[in-house]
Amino acid sequence: MNTANITEKRPYLGKDDRKKALLLSAAQLVEQAGWGVLNMSALAEKAGVSRQLVYQHFPNLESLLGATAWVIFTDTMQGTAQAISNHPDDLKLAIRSAVLVSLDMPVGKGDALWQLIAGSGLNSPELETIRLGIRDVVLKLWVPTLRKTLALDEAAATAQVWMVILSFWGVRQLIRDGLLGREQGIAQFDALLDRIF
User: Fold this and answer.
1) How far apart (Å, rounded) are the C-alpha atoms in residues 49 and 41?
2) Is 68-196 a CATH 3.40.1350 domain?
3) Domain locations in the chain?
4) Which of 142, 143, 157, 192 could form a disulfide with 152 if both were Cys (CB 3.0 to 4.6 A apart)?
């Protein structure tokens, strides 16, 4: 019998487990090559399934992109919420704790988040909608703390939060690209926080 033509069957997974497996494959695609590569065909190929199976879990590209973004962003969001909760009376320490969550993530995951946060190279109305949603989540996490700590109005707190977020991600990119060492980048970001706060 010729075994060269026998393909290994993929294991049976229940609906929820199959969707999780597909999302893991989608996140891996994005983390390896950016948001532009993620579509139904690419996911089917990466996951070793049919496009029809992908469509059973994600009826359109928008739902696939949204679910993948949420998978990539969730750990960072939870880590940020925990940092704020752990340091309710020390804004700088809360920010530093949240920074470490994002700074220590794998490079591909960080790059995928940076693309969403900065809106760089997305070229997709679906991803733009997701970017705005992620920005809203980030602002809802930080603005109340900043308003309380610094006695700022909503607009001023929103602007300062977003400027600090973008500053951190800029430092993270410099560290990622080897232009700053990790400790040097953290020290520079801390110095910026001292000036702002």
Assistant:
1) 10
2) no
3) 68-196
4) 157
